[in-house]
Amino acid sequence: MKSVSLKLTTVLLVMIVAITLTANNVGPLPSQVCASSGESIGVGALVVLGAWGGYKLFTGHQQQKYDDYLAQGKEYLENENYALAIKSFKSARKIKDSVKANQLLTTAQTKYQQYHYQQGKEYLEEENWELAYQEFKKVEQSASYLDSNLKKEEAYNKLRQQKLKRVAVIEFEDNSYRYDLGTRTTGFLVSDLLELEPDFLEIVERDKLSTTLTAQELAASGLITSTAAQEIGTAAQTDYLLVGKVISGEIDRDESRELLTKEDDEEVEKIRIEKAAYVEVLFKLIDATDGAVVVSKSFEETELYQQSYFEDEAQIIVSDEKLLNTALKKVAGRFANLLVKQYGLIE
Which InterPro entries does the record associate with it (predicted)? Predict the structure, then answer.
């Protein structure tokens, strides 16, 4: 606001000075020329007045917005809606960085921290770990409540003990019988789940599962019996089994050639390569206590690739395996996000 006012004022002063100098530098002139000069000065004066009026209108509008934000913030403050009060006072400060706006903003921020810290303490006493965690998280950066981080961690650890689920990821079955897609999908899924760092999901790696179980029982066909699910769950101390099947993994390839003539009449062949990798994967989350299917979802993905080059040019064409990997990573990532969103994060 200050910079805008300064710029407008500077422009107006320059215009006034220019018109004044023009008028002072005009010597004795014929009456017609003098009249013309007078008219020019009059027009210039009108321009200055118009600009000044526009400036006053603009500053008046900004002042009104500033006053409205302050009034709105005060109302929110009285109603103990501190988050909205902070938002309103910040908006007012953007228009005019005044002492009043800053004082009100500080008051709102202080009351916000006091309120949520007290709420967190009450929830902690009630052993409502999730709500306590959420309240302390809102004031964790406050210098006024240095123990809020410790209290937040206490609530989080209690909540994690209460809600933590261990998931055993079993190697996916591959119905495509090519490229070892089942193993690849399993690896991508585990990697994505670990990268997302879910609060309440712990991934049990394949090599920690009981070796007494047969390969058929560990296959991700989705036909795991309730007995097998319970055996796996007990052996690996898991709550869920994550199984799956690569239903389809295909590569379509098309190559076309065209003979072109250069400017020197030399003929050269232009080659165009098009590929499409298509995958479909079924994911299932199974309750290890009774073998019930908790989540069943299939995802499809098509990854396209095309390249054109002349016959005498050296080119590196993307391999089928790499194209399939890209498609598999996408479907694994989609299921990992779905799983973590539903079961693994604090809202």
Answer: Curli_assmbl/transp-comp_CsgG (IPR005534), TPR-like_helical_dom_sf (IPR011990)
